[in-house]
Amino acid sequence: MKAAKQPGVRAALLKRNLGIVYSGPMTVWASVFFLAPLLIIVVYSFLKKGLYGGVTPDFSFDAYIALKNPNIAVIAVKTLLISLGSTAITILIALPCGYFMARSKYQTLFLMLIIIPFWTNFLIRVYAWMNILGNNGFLNEFLIQSGLIKNYIHFLYNQNTVVLVLVYMYLPYAILPLYSSIDKFDFSLLEAARDLGATTLQAMFKVLLPNVRSGIYTAFLFTFIPIFGAYAVPLLVGGKNSYMLGNVIADQLTKSRNWPLASAISMVLTLVTTAGVISMLSLQKRDERRLGKSKGGKN
After folding, report:
1. CA–CA distance from 174 to each of 96, 181, 210, 293 (Å)?
2. CA-based max dimension of the chain
């Protein structure tokens, strides 16, 4: 019996040890390509600017002191407002889309239509919007040919255009987690709510939305984080009033060659996004505990 058990014990120990082998390459990959660059940014943010760019090995808080510049503070607030506004609009559009997909018989087709834009290069999609909204673009030509306007309308190079293109770019990132969450929802609960006297709108807000909060939190993170660090969209379709922190970082690296200041701004972006992730995860865990308690009380 002992001889029979030994091979099983050895196999179990071997599988347990193989877990380290399997996770080892991923750990090394994450350390080299994520932690190491982040550590370099942290170190650079506490060094002094070199005379011709780069850094000098002198410890300094100059980069963080420079963040007190009113211009940087204004751009930071503007970036936060644009990011929150774009994320809110994206989620408001994604919610009915995810609901419609979850109730549709053609879910596979709609999923393909959502994923197809990912097959096209990011910059090509931005330039497509520039061709649509430009002075000689499709929209202006259509309005002039229709007789609705006589002169071109400057659709490009303003904050509204930046928000429009950002919403378009990151809408799939919000639709997919919301669809996944809504698809698991028991729609008979909506019928029960209506049978008890709730209107369709009340059933949506009081029954559906509380049960798909995890999808809303995920959609928020998937859209807010990349929008907050956006660079290409405000550069190509935004004007001077649409400057965001991502553009400031690029200018400090390529034009001013102030690497410590660029690193300090990057650290601010990292801390804000990390705080957002932690807050969303804490809210999600709180909702899960509350839902677990309510189910336990019912049982």
Report:
1. 11, 11, 17, 29
2. 94
Beta-strand (E) ranges in the chain?
47-49, 55-59
Write down the pTM of the prediction: 0.82
Residues 6+ apart with CB under 8 A from 232: 122, 123, 126
Residue matched to tokens 């071997």 = 14
Residue whose token pair is 């049982």: 299
DSSP state, 46? Answer: T
Closest by Cα among 168, 87, 90, 171 to 126: 168
Whole-number pLDDT of residue 97: 92
Question: What is the reported pLDDT for 2?
Answer: 46
Cβ neighbours around 18 below 10 Å, total? 10
Domains of the chain: 62-298 (1.10.3720.10)
Return the structure tokens found at 227. 């929008």
Low-confidence ranges of the chain (pLDDT < 70): 1-23, 290-299
Residues 6+ apart with CB under 8 A from 133: 139, 140, 155, 156, 161, 237
Q: What Cα–Cα distance (Å) separates residue 83 from each residue in 109, 222, 250?
A: 30, 12, 18
Bridge partners of 49, per DSSP, are: 55
The per-residue pLDDT for 9 is 60
Alpha-carbon distance values, 207 to 144, 145, 157, 190, 286 (Å): 47, 48, 41, 7, 18
> Strand 47-49 vs strand 55-59: parallel, antiparallel, or unpaired?
antiparallel
